[in-house]
Amino acid sequence: MKLLRFKKNQTVGLVSTSGNWILAVSLLFILVGYVLWPSLRLLTEGFKIPLLIELFGSFSSGNSRALFNSVWISIWTVVGAGLLGTTMSYLFFRYDFPLKKVLVAMAALPLALPPLVGVLAFLFLYGESGILPRGLQALLGLDGVPFSFQGMWAVWLVHVYSMYVFYYLFCSASLQNVDRSQMEAASDLGASPAKVFGSVILPHLKPSIVSASLLVFMISMASFTAPLLFAGTENFLTLQIYNYKVNGNLEYSAAVSIVLTIICLVFLALIEVNRKKNRVTTTSKGSAPISVPVRSGSARFVAFTAAALIIVFLALPILTIVLISFVQEGSWTWQVLPQAYTLDNYLNLFSQADVAAPIQNSLKMAVLATVANLLFGVAAAVFIVKSRFPGREIVRLLSILPFAIPGTVIAINLIVTFSESHPLAGGAILVGSFWLLPLAYFIRHIPLIVRSTIASLESYDDRLTDASQDLGAGAFRTFWTIVLPSILPGILAGTLLTFVTALGEFVSSIMLYVFDNRPISVEILSQLRLYDFGAAAAYSVFLMILIGSASILASRFGGSARSSVVR
């Protein structure tokens, strides 16, 4: 099959030679100007050996402690999330037990929680003034709460709750290709269930576990919200970046940002190496294994109890946010449960201009960033997959680069670059303006639509393009009528994910917003600090509904494309 077709008009695949040049120049201009150049500016600002020695030269310094804490919590997040996510995927795959269907339906529930909302839910539920600690105190007649959700273990638990989903999704996808005949052969040879798992299942899962581990470690290193609200006096690299910025010390903030970025870039490179190493698709020649029913009474009781506990663990944070969203301001202080409830928190979201402003700001900025991501992402994906232009590999690498740059670092990059008049900003100063946040959202989410569209294009049959062009259709008509409908599910999945991620984005927002464009996430934190818990929770429920709806649509439009975004 010919992948490239040369005609009189020099058409190469879907894009003409002149079109390839225009695409290459346009894509590289955006990527170099808004992704690479700000990172290089940060490098020149913060990569100074004496400065790095000053900040990290002593093991007892705050920055060295922050580096240790970030790495330590990331390692244990990989362990905890890996054990939970991998175990759940295997048990769902191998066994049939009570409450399985409910648990399967709820397994990906943490994806519906934006980071700030998830942390807020844990604060209301497990914090020192949370429902469970105070409930146990009242129930047991204690003078103080028996436990309080704070410090390193609290950050770890939030990370495990929000990140085990990567292991669950990756391993569940891999288990779909397991051949039942291999498992039956091992059992026939006398292998125990544990031996079958170790010799047949685990080798099959290894690529997915490695990919998820690298991804989770990188995301944990870049975590900001959980350390901000729960770490207390413990330092983390992301918090150091934020604190230095707030105190006006951009040089120190840039230096710490470089250290964090280098670590994340190393893990992004490892993810890419692992992806290429395991690029060959494994296909099953036999049928998929049949779930084994759990029949023993004691085993069913244990399975039921464990499933019920996991369901409660998954559902309680969301139910808590919903409950608190009806709380009347000032009615929940020392009590176990709120004493007065109202619908005003929801009515105010749409009836009061000052309350609705953050919603309007978030919608406006998310739409602007998503439209830009959509146009750029589709163009970049087509160029990367369907052209044979020399610059396509550079475009691919730069397109996934923002995935390795933490939100705090992207914010510092933009502050350093656009705090003065700049040609890329039309000669304006973007710091302190409305436009800096949509730009940050656009940069952060470049990989989403690019990777989901690439996944669709890689499974597209090029013979359809050949047939269309043989019948006389031009490149544009072929793309519009043949290619676009085929890859539309992947594009829509990436677009929806981009929109909802931008809608709930907090990390860059807290560092770049001004009052006139404050988004929902920043307003949630503001209401929390004002002790208006009902208003903060109402904003959170609004976000959850939007994100949950978009996640359902994304999974229907293109589940495989959606999973490719994080692979």
Q: In the CATH classification, which architecture of the largest domain applies?
A: Orthogonal Bundle
Shape: globular
The CATH top-level class label of the largest domain = Mainly Alpha
CATH topology of the largest domain: MetI-like fold
The run of helices and strands is EEHHHEHHHHHHHHHEHHHHHHHHHHHH
Contiguous low-pLDDT stretches (5 residues minimum) are 1-12, 280-286, 559-567
Distance between the termini: 28 Å
Please estimate the helix content. Answer: over 70%
Total number of beta strands: 4
Task: Please give a quick description of this structure.
The chain is mainly alpha-helical and 567 residues long. The protein folds into 2 domains: 8-45 and 347-567, MetI-like (MetI-like fold); 47-324, MetI-like (MetI-like fold, Orthogonal Bundle).
